[in-house]
Amino acid sequence: MSAVKKTDATNALYDFEEIKLSDKMFEKFAARMYELAGVDLPLTPKNHALIRNRIVKLLRRHNMKTYEEYWSMLERGSNDVIQEYISALTTNMTSFYRESNHFDFLQKALPDLAKKFGNDLRIWCAAASTGQEPYTLAMTACEAQPEMPGAKVRLLATDIDLQVLKKASIGTYEEREMQGLPPVQRSKYFEKVKLDGDEYFRAKDQLHNMIRFAPFNLMNPKYEFQHKFHVIFCRNVLIYFDEPTTKKVIDSLTSCLAPGGYLVLGHSESGNVKHPNLKPLSRAVYQKT
Q: What is the model's pTM?
């Protein structure tokens, strides 16, 4: 009897490993991701493996045997299934002080922005992921505070992926997730907490109180905000978009930026910007004219 059970389990595992993702189904899944999130996934061996491996996990989760089953469920389009799909296919790579020269620039720029725009400064982190970037922005603003007494910096942190956004809003990290954070900042802005016997680091209220987390899709036809932003960080997102989508997003971001404000992209994205109202200042840093 045990031998039969073992064989059944092996066959179940073998079935999942052997499920083939046809090019036709790949194109359907890729087109849906483009429609939902603007992510461009042309048919390449790398992208084929990426979609296959991530959707296989969803098949297991829902006890499904074919990609067509999951596609039918996705087509029915409940919000939970769509969010699950976006989360599964979104790549979230982030760390504290990633591409650190941008935060050096920001710390020097904030006092000048306060002189120009007054003491109410607004920063938008448009790809918050699991939160390391918005918390780094908040720490940078705190470090600049002595040079701009009386200034108040408020941050909006958004992402399309609700799962990572929830983690970001909690602001609690394992040791391995603290990579890139200098010891001085770690002790100054984070506190150790115990959860289920394990040690974590939680962002202090000083940072939490500066940031509002909210879902936002950069594919929205209009970016409607009550006020213009003085700084927008949208880093390492455009690399997943095709050229028309990149242009549309850059146009929309620029429309949300106050004249004289700054748009900051990822280092690898600096070649993507061709906008009449954006003046390059340094690597992947632009000022709205």
A: 0.89
Residue 176 designated active-site: no
The pLDDT tens digits for 109-128 are 999 999 999 999 999 999 99
Q: Where in the chain is the domain with CATH 3.40.50.150?
A: 101-288
Can you tell me which residue has the tokens 């990149």?
A: 246
* Residue with token string 């040791």: 175
What is the fold, at CATH topology level, of the domain defined by 101-288?
Rossmann fold (3.40.50)
pLDDT digits (tens, 9 = 90+) for 205-220: 999 999 999 999 999 9
Query: In the annotation, is 8 catalytic?
Result: no
Residue 155 contacts residue 124 (beta carbons within 8 Å) = yes
Domain with CATH 1.10.155.10 in the chain: 2-89
- The count of other CB atoms within 10 Å of the CB of residue 78 is 10
CA distance 163 to 206: 24
**What fold does the segment set 2-89 form as a domain?**
Chemotaxis Receptor Methyltransferase Cher; domain 1 (1.10.155)
CA distances from 258 to 18, 42, 113, 197, 263 (A): 53, 35, 11, 47, 10
Q: Which of 54, 154, 186, 283 is catalytic?
A: 54
Which pair of structure tokens corresponds to residue 136? 């780094």
CA distances from 210 to 31, 108, 134, 213, 248 (A): 37, 19, 10, 10, 29
